[in-house]
Amino acid sequence: MKLYYTPRSHFSRKVRVLVDALNLQVELINAGNVAEDSAENFGLNPLMRVPTLVDNGCPVFESDYIAQYLVRQFDKNDRFNVLTNDVRTLNARAVMNGVMSAEVELILAARTGIDTEAYLRFNKITESINRGLNWLELRAEIFSGEPSYLGFHLTAMWDHLALYDLVSLNYPKLRDSVGRLSAFAYIAASIPR
Length: 193
Ligand SMILES: N[C@@H](CCC(=O)N[C@@H](CS)C(=O)NCC(=O)O)C(=O)O
Prior knowledge:
This protein is an alpha+beta fold.
């Protein structure tokens, strides 16, 4: 199996942590600059995003669908609660994905020459990150307990936010959860630099 990714990609990292947690052999292929527009770099993903998993020539798109695909194949007991139907967990997943996508919009807009300070649209995108994090902080107890895919997701989101420094991270409960999870070597191994 091959995973198209970039070392800093937070969407890729939640899959990479799951791969490491399940001890799977996956070849990592660096897609390079994700702002570019060549589908070949992205494992033939027409949306030109990472991650994409390719298994025996068959591509799987979307980080959470890739996680589900891996668990259905290799972790029948779903040890990290990837296949959950719990609405609180799914809502937290949706909010984290929204925060992460908003960050991608801001970063790639700036990278491709857009002055993000000049357009109101980007104010709303930034505010969605702040409100999303606040929403998660108020429900931080869902990240307690044994490491799960939700915790991998939180850590991937948080470390990326810390790296790019686009918003302030004054969320002590989320920070504590990330600190606890980062003590696991298989989670810390992929911290973006
Ligand atoms: N919903 C997708 C989001 C993936 C995504 O946005 N990845 C970013 C990198 S972290 C990307 O490749 N962006 C390229 C672009 O938006 O042009 C997933 O969960 O896999």
